[in-house]
Amino acid sequence: MEVITTHNSTDFDALSSMIAAKILYPEAAVLLPSRVNPNVKAFLSIHKDLDIFNFFPVEKVDGRKVTRLVAVDVNRWQRLDRLKSLSGQKGMEIHVWDHHAEVCDMDASLQREERVGACTTLLVEEIKNRKADISPIQSTLFLAGIYEDTGSLSFPQTTARDALAVAHLLENHADLSVLENFLRPSYGPRQKDILFSMLQDAKRIKANGFAISICKMEIEGHTNGLSLVVLMYRDILNVDAAFGIFTEPGRKRTIVIARSGVDTMDVGKIMRSLGGGGHPGAASAMLKDVNPDAVEELVLEMVRGNQQSSVRVGDLMSFPVFTVHPDTPMEEAASLLKEKGISGMPVAEDGKLLGIISRRDVNKLKSPSQWKAPVKAFMARDVLAVDADRSVPAASRMLVKHDIGRLPVIQDGKIIGIFTRSDAMLYYYDLMPE
Question: Model pTM?
Answer without folding.
Answer: 0.56
